[in-house]
Design a protein that fits this description.
Layout (H helix, E strand, L loop, with lengths): L1 H4 L8 E6 L4 E6 L6 E7 L12 H14 L11 E6 L10 E2 L2 H9 L8 H14 L4 E5 L9 H4 L5 H6 L9 H15 L7 E7 L3 E7 L2 E5 L21 H9 L4 H10 L2 H6 L4 H9 L3 H25 L4 E5 H6 L1 H8 L11 H5 L6 E2 L8 E4 L4 H13 L1
Parallel strand pairs: 1-4, 4-6, 7-10, 10-12
Antiparallel strand pairs: 1-2, 2-3, 5-6, 7-8, 8-9, 11-12
Helix pairs in contact: 2-4, 3-4, 11-12, 12-14
Bound molecules: adenosine-5'-diphosphate.
Length: 389
Amino acid sequence: MPEQRVADAATAPVLVLNAGSSSLKYQLVVPETGEVLAKGLVERIGEAGSDVADHAAAMQAMASRLRTDGVDLDDVRLRAVGHRVVHGGPDFSAPVVIDDAVLARVHELSGLAPLHNPAAAVGIEAARARFDVPHVAVFDTAFFASLPEAASTYAVPRDLARRHAIRRYGFHGTSHEFVSRATADLLGRPLAQLRQVVLHLGNGCSASAVRGGVAVDTSMGLTPLEGLVMGTRSGDVDPGLHAYLAREAGLSLGEIDTLLNKRSGLLGLSGVNDFRELEQRLASGDADARLAFDVAVHRLKHYVGAYLAVLGGIDVLVFTAGVGENSVALRAAVTEGLEELGITVDRARNAARSGAARVISPDGARVVVAVVPTNEELAIARQTARLVG
Ligand code: ADP
């Protein structure tokens, strides 16, 4: 029974929350052991006809679902609540304990992340009202606060960039940090000695270059739109595309933003954004699916090559997240033809199904190619626990 498991203070769980505008993802996890006591998702918050009117109601809905799962939040001696916050802007380069000033700042950063930060702020407010424990914000951008200026700076006028906090921030940082550490553990080598390229490939996709556990480059920028081809996001385009579309297609800036974020990427090229469906269409010989796959792979190779140059050579290439952990075909395609660079995968190892961290390159290869499952909730729970002591 969960109640018995959490009776001991040393195993008191952390509640990890990821609040979106109409959803609340939650997970109750013991940071030391990684044990997940319960998890779930409250959806349709604030939508017409939904029972869940707002984020405060979502906290109640979560608590009652947890009770149904045998977990009473008032009995588990909750240690803290860890909140995933997408944008930390120029202010936050590490997790912080949330006070009124931090909450206000998360809200103020909404200009940089209009789809994400307002929801996070509302979620934090509702959770603080409901749970009288320390609350911690863990930022998706924090791991990339270390980027050298040469990598984080856009070549636009400096005064304008300063005034509007324009720089490459990067996202998925919690995952890139967790996975780069887990990879060092897998290999039994000191993190400080490894040059890694990490490919986080889920619905959103990003690449990072990590030297000695410190991020030195990443593919996402001011917003999560830059970089790799994603489920519905275009990734890199010529910035001139915006003016061209405005002129030639009569689209407004808002429409162009929606087009590139929600109707592009794999979806725009093939009609599907889910990678499993894309693979099914590939198997049936669909030409649009083939092009979408090829464009995504081509872009991935671009970034692998770029980061190889940025790092002056790599020790490890790591695949993670839904697509990276599961798509045998994508991993094979990205690494194909890179033997000269020391990158190759063993066919059988790549094809073997497993949920565990594993090496898929041949023994003795110059570059280790690995598949390492990400776990952002556990990473948030651990950072939260570390901060609240
Ligand atoms: P999110 O960015 O939402 O966290 P995930 O990391 O869960 O996303 O990744 C979701 C993607 O992973 C989807 O495109 C899904 O189709 C893909 N995926 C999941 N399982 C498989 C699989 N067995 N083979 C190929 N793709 C998969």
